[in-house]
Amino acid sequence: MILHDFPLSSAAFRVRIVLNLKGLTYEKRNYALRAGEQRAPDYLAINPAGLVPALEVDGLHLGQSLAIIDYLDAMHPEPRMIPTDPAERARALEMALTIACDIHPINNLRILQYLEHEMGQDREAVERWYRHWVGTGFATLEKLLPDTPFAGGDAPNIVDACLVPQMYNARRFKTDLTPFPRVTATADRAAALPAFQEAAPPPL
After folding, report:
1. I need a surface site. Which of 77, 83, 107, 155 has the fewest CB within 10 A?
2. What global pTM score does this model have?
3. Domains identified in the chain, total number
């Protein structure tokens, strides 16, 4: 099992967390995204989107972090990341997709680089953009997250695996987290677990 990775990618961070929670052994191959290594022909043959992460297993190539997590859950069911109960599954995916679809796509590296290099926005404006959209998504999560130790209840699930990387980057961009006490507390409890710490990028 090979994970095509970049340490600061929140999407790749999600997959590293899940691999660790499931106790799976894997090889990590890192790419320098700012140097464009993910656009090399050899990598595009693995992931035509030219993005990380990608998971390579027995000739199968998968992109998109949530698709990878779903695959890992099917192949290695314990501990479960996506609940099997229909209502619990839908609620978990609602929160995970708030991060993966509402926050992340408009704040990932290629968007921020486009704002700066193609749209002529200075660094301050780019960071303001980031903080605005993270704040919007976190405001939603503040209302959705349950009053339990983790988003998954007594144990972390796919939501925690998405939330902790997003919180890491929110802090990297100096987002004001004061309005989001539940989001912050939930993320911090999960981030303290060994599986999350071992998956984490370098400390801020």
Report:
1. 77
2. 0.93
3. 2
